[in-house]
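Hey Z.,

So I finally got round to the 2-acetamido-2-deoxy-beta-D-glucopyranose thing we talked about over coffee. Here's the setup:
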Amino acid sequence: MDDFRPTIFILTVFIHLLLLLPTPIAHDYSDALSKSILFFEGQRSGRLPKEQRMGWRGNSALNDGINLKTDLVGGYYDAGDNVKFHFPMAYTATMLAWSSVDFGSYMSGDDLGYNILALKWATDYLLKTVSQLPNRIFVQVGEAQADHDCWERPEDMDTPRTAFALDAPDPASDLAGEIAAALAAASIAFKQSDPIYSKILLDKAVETFQYADLHRGSYTDTPSVNQAVCPFYCSVNGYKDELLWGAAWLRRATGDDYYLKYLVNNRQPFGADYDIDEFGWDNKFGGVHVLVAKEVFEKNVTALGAYKDNAERMMCSYFPETAGPHMTYTPGGLLYKPGSSQLQNTAALSFLLLTYADYLSKSSQQLNCGNLNYEPDSLRRIVKQQVEYVLGDNPMKLSYMVGYGDQYPRQIHHRGASIPSVNVHPQAFGCIKGWDIFASPNPDPNILVGAVIGGPDVDDKFIAKRTNASDTEPTTYINAPFVGLFAYFKSNPNFS
Ligand SMILES: *[C@@H]1O[C@H](CO)[C@@H](O)[C@H](O)[C@H]1NC(C)=O
Ligand SMILES: *[C@@H]1O[C@H](CO)[C@@H](O)[C@H](O)[C@H]1NC(C)=O
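And the result:
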């Protein structure tokens, strides 16, 4: 080959590659972000405000709390049913607040405003759940079994709206710890825009944490509550993670050394060093390590160094080439944990990765994993892969966010979305008739725009039917971390 001209050869190869490989379509993160926040309007319980944009929803559950002579109107339905479970609702609020606090700078004014409204819908309600402290804390409204036996829109509900409560000294360290975390995190989110509300949230967070710490144990230790909550939202991994989580958010919100000492003294006895790579509505340890690491990065508080070490070990586990235990990915590249509603894991684990990357960047540091070092962008690349997967770059070629693009599931496991709206069909369908709609092959009449649903299984397979709850049910705690993730990539659209 005497006439070999390398430049032309390389050019030719390059052009061939361009023709062969599908050009990846850049995702519209701005659209994904605003939709991920809009979703929360579809989950609203109570009296809807006139600014309500999700127009197919109506008022619902306007007498909640009446059996305990209190006002428990408002808040969010957790998923595709009509129960208000306060434990995952509080975690949702914490994650909306964290999205706002650490990723708000990446949002436009509109998105930030709507995110704050979505958060306030939760915190206004959470304040009601702790309005009778120090004696009583409200746990849940609605009877899960009776609710799940019906396929009814929230606007038609005729199932018992029983409210459940715990009275001192019934333990509630997990529930109250998470509510304290939510209120403390939200107090930071509201500090600029509404200092009076911020102060109310913070005072209540302190008081709620006192209940959590004083009455130690799980909220499901009390049989009546256990019956109401389990098997849906029992705190399977125990309550000690929520005590540290509540303390960590209170430390960040107040700077008070009481919480610093609490974190230092209880890390080992609470088992935090042995539980480093989990994060979700049940297990908060991963979140505790990352959140506390921020203070170590910023102020070199050596007393908290062990939390940062744990966070670092967790971060190293996302990289398959490092030594030690590893996160699991599906063949298609999705972060995966055993269990149902996969994308809840993807959302929470990606959130920690992106947050930690931010803390590294701001302190000009790298992630150290033995003899391997990673720039913050290496962490972000894993996160980018996750959000791209969720928005459609996956083996099923589907967006797992409802209403994003034009390839998304048309049937989701969500009562309100699947039954015609009260605007077009004011008469109630009733408990049983709804099951015909549930089983029908028809697409949902109402689009729950922005809902990120449970998503695919370990093999990237997905069944786009509302009968498959694990795959097609949306939940508030899947969406909340995604708000922060989409905000980052909206601001950095060309990140690669
Ligand atoms: C952090 O503090 C420790 C001991 O107080 C000190 O040895 C170390 O150099 C400090 N690190 C930085 C980055 O300032
Ligand atoms: C839901 O779909 C997944 C595949 O994504 C499958 O593994 C699971 O068995 C299905 N569950 C039901 C109840 O159909």
